Amino acid sequence: MYSPRTNSHNGGGWISSLERIVRTVDEVELGVAFDYPEETFRQEVEGVVYYPISKPHTLDLFLEIVRDFRPDLIQIFGSENDFGQICGQVDVPVLIHLQGCIPPIENALFPVDVNQWDFLFGKGLTLRRRFIGIRSRQAFQKRAQSEVETIQRCQYFMGRTDWDKSMVSLFNPKAKYFHCEEALRDSFIHGDKRWHQNEQQRKTIVSVISNPWYKGADLILKTARILRQFTDIDYEWKVYGVSDIRFYEHKFKIKAEDVAVNVMGTASQEQLADALCQCSCMVHPSYIDNSPNSICEAQYLGVPVIATNVGGIPSLVKDGETGLLIPANAPYDLAAKIKTLLGNPQLQLTLSENAMRKAHDRHNPETIKSTLIDIYHQILKDE
Prior knowledge:
- The chain is α/β, with parallel strands linked by helices.
- It has two domains: 4-185 and 364-382, Glycogen Phosphorylase B (Rossmann fold, 3-Layer(aba) Sandwich), CATH 3.40.50; 188-362, Glycogen Phosphorylase B (Rossmann fold).
- The chain is 42% helix and 15% strand.
- It is built from 14 helices and 13 strands.
- Helix 11 (293-301) crosses helix 13.
- The longest helix has 27 residues, at 127-153.
């Protein structure tokens, strides 16, 4: 929340939402060190001490910030980030708030049939994306090794899915794991928008993905082609979060416009909430994920969700109860589930009501606040 007008998450991501919650706790004095293009060692804004850090990061700078703020506890967002270098280097407890986990992501990095030769000779890539693709495998392997070392050095972890808990247990059996649900963006939590069943003949499918190769843009195209070939569903598939999927169009020889897939680019949280409320269902196609905000936000609004059964997603989506699950890289299964869901209004309502009830409980800001503060107290008492 240091500079919300320039926030890359269109008004703030889940970390800024969590900051809003922590700001309301009188017993907490909050300092935030974070990536920012302009470095200012210390600046206080609305009672919060901020430490903007421009890259490259150094351990010496991290330790200087710790000495200046003198915290009782340090919370790091993401075991994959280099802030984890301070584990074992400070005399106060360090709690890592898990985001993803790089080793299993590296294992599922590229879609089926995609390899580094495609990034050298394939069409539809900017020079920047081509370079990222060429070095992705090596970069992720290096990050995976670094992340495992960080997890093995740290004693305390906080997560929200069975998957991230199992990853901590695998890499560091002696670590202590705490469960705390995720804070969602304000437009979803505090707004009055809710999903309503789409009774129009033309159905709208929404997906919210990002640029990494493992987010499933190829699965969207493959599934849409199957829907066109084997069903008579009148649909439009809107894809938010990315502005260019030409690489996948060329690689799999499927033109988005031919299969009613529209790339919508990046939307504000308000625009995205509106699109979700007006859609027929939401599809999350990722090959690996922990607890995608897109699923959580859709469920909070009551949108029927179909998602891949990977990573931490089964902790969010109970198949047949709060959504529908499919295997990863299963376009025929996904097409069949979409056909089933769009043709069954009662199933849509059942999934909607169950998911919304569960999500409102799961993402309750007051519950998150009390859980988080209780975790802080447990760790400080343990020390």
